[in-house]
Write a structure and sequence with these properties.
Strand content: under 5%
Helix content: over 70%
Number of domains: 1
Mean pLDDT: 79
Largest sheet: none
Amino acid sequence: MSQLLNVLRQQLDPQTVSSMANSIGADPSSTQNAVSTALPLLVGALSRNATSSPQGAQALDAALERDHDGSVLDDLSSLLGGAGGGGGLGGLLGMAGDLMGGGGSSKALDGAGILKHVLGGKQSSIARGIAQATGLSAQQSSQLLGLLAPVVMGALGKVKREQQLGPDGLASQLEQERQQLEEQAPGMSQGGLLQLLDRDDDGSVADDVSKLAKLLGGSGLF
């Protein structure tokens, strides 16, 4: 089992997904289906960005070194809406404010900023596709992506630190993660994630994401 996917599975257990569902105002079953679609897309997008050029891998390595050491995973229940209130999107904002006040990096919790770098202009189309497939609203899908993005970056930062990966190692690790996701999803072709993410945002991306969700629905990946 690949290390990044293993870390994500450990972090996004049913209780955590239920907290996320509460944060975005959705039911846990629909939220779980949305998570199962969103995570492969985020990992695939990171793989594409890291393997497209040496500069892409270097930029990702620098961002992880600077802002994403994995510590965001230490208090994930509070971040995503656990006991005590103040979680979810509000928890993200509050924790980001605490980090800024303490001299830390708020970028570790900046889901919107992470998604801008990882998904670029496809973010809204991907959110619509997840909504079409799972019954969430487009707004709920966008909120969920914003909650997942810091978790994925934190998990990747943890893997980088534990394996002492540099830019080339990160690119190789993410390529392996993407390939494993594609191999485990019934009906997905090799390179399918990259093909989807590299398409022009011509209005069909949302439909493609919706079809991808159906492929991933029975895979048991997350």
